[in-house]
Automatic annotation (TrEMBL):
Gene3D superfamilies: 1.10.30.50. This is HNH endonuclease. Residues 86-99 have a biased composition (Basic residues). InterPro entries: HNH_nuc. Residues 74-99 are annotated as: Disordered.
Length: 99
């Protein structure tokens, strides 16, 4: 997959029949990008999960062009890193000289 991080197990988590699922979703969506972000290429060549995770049901899948899929994935990655970072932050402490 284009843009896939090194060490990601995303591809390994796809079901064995992913090629058939992918074809079905692209056909259902008439090979039209369902995201439509700025710069959309309009022609869907990829299948996107609407909600992150491993729900590969048709209701959770949509056709996406390469550019829109990359933008959505990047935004999800930034959001996920932000959640992780905020969980790791230590509580702010006031400088001893300001107490």
């Amino acid at each position: 997959m284009a843009g896939q991080r090194q060490g990601s197990d995303r591809k390994a988590r796809l079901p064995a029949n992913w090629p058939a699922i992918r074809r079905r979703i692209l056909t259902r969506d008439r090979h039209r990008c369902q995201l439509g972000y700025d710069g959309c290429l309009r022609k869907a060549t990829q299948v996107d999960h609407k909600q992150a995770g491993d729900d590969h049901s048709d209701a959770n899948l949509q056709g996406a062009c390469e550019d829109c899929h990359a933008k959505k994935s990047a935004a999800e990655g930034v959001d996920a890193r932000g959640r992780i970072t905020s969980l790791r932050r230590r509580p702010a402490t006031q400088h001893p000289g300001l107490r």
